[in-house]
Amino acid sequence: MDVAMRMRAFTVWLGAVGLVGVQAFAQPCELPLTNGSFEDPDPLFPSFPEGWADLPVFGPRWREVGDGFPNPALVRTGTHSIELQTVANHRFVGYTTNLFDEFGELYDPAYEYGGGPLLVSGWYAIPASDPIVNARAGLKLEFRRENWSIYLSFERLEIEGHTDGRWTYFEMTITQEDFDFYHDLWGGPWPPFPVGVSVLPIRFLNGDFDVNDQSGTIFWDDLRVVQIPECAADLTGDSDPDGPNYGDPDGNVDADDFFFYIDQFKSRNPEADLTGSADPEDPTYGICNGVIDANDFFFYLNLFSSGC
Fold first, then answer.
1. Domain 53-227 classified CATH 1.10.150?
2. Which of 91, 143, 294, 306 has the fewest CB atoms nearer than 10 Å to its CB?
3. Does the pLDDT of residue 22 top 60, yes or no?
4. What is the DSSP letter of 194?
């Protein structure tokens, strides 16, 4: 059967099953970022969101719909978000994932150095009545070694003004080229390499202004972290299950990879679980969710179309 016929046959098969999601095998696919939507309280300190430490302590606020603060909480999904308001005598206000859970493990998402670009995204909203003035807001990433030291950090701080209370999508991507820029500039690399990344939604006032010459507030919700291999669509060197290169990436994206994925999808192999949504702006985009359905197929189709 040629490529066109096999693709049409698979399309007919998708239609026959109605694109209905089927549960994957029992093992769960854990989100790499704990509590990215800020819904869950810390198990030991329930007045704070799980997985997030406030900077400075008692500076920013974990907000809830109807929580009684003078300014209403802006929440995109669920009932909670975080607010980085102006804090007197502080140039830096934010949250970080760099803290320990109740079992002594860091909440920082795992990161594989050289394993592909890291995409961190989220949604922010700024009320028109309290715009960000003089300060800048955005995201900061601190790539950390196993001993918790920072290997390199990157930030994208360009948010100011207001969004009229509307939620606005924001993302930053760190590639190997970003690391290599500083390697070339400062004489790196400097092993050991990072194994995790601290995620910080922040606001910052630079030294051109007095520490209290700022105002405004910003809300964040639905943050996510995704690391996608450099050639994520390359799955196999052979589409024949009996072939010697079946399941071994070969550096090329071709029909063998497409039909290999079809095999995993049809057999409900957990490897076929790639995403929770086919919408790039959805918080579960690129994050496995324990369900194998049409979202996963179209997610892979996008990877396949992009090639290497």
1. no
2. 306
3. no
4. P
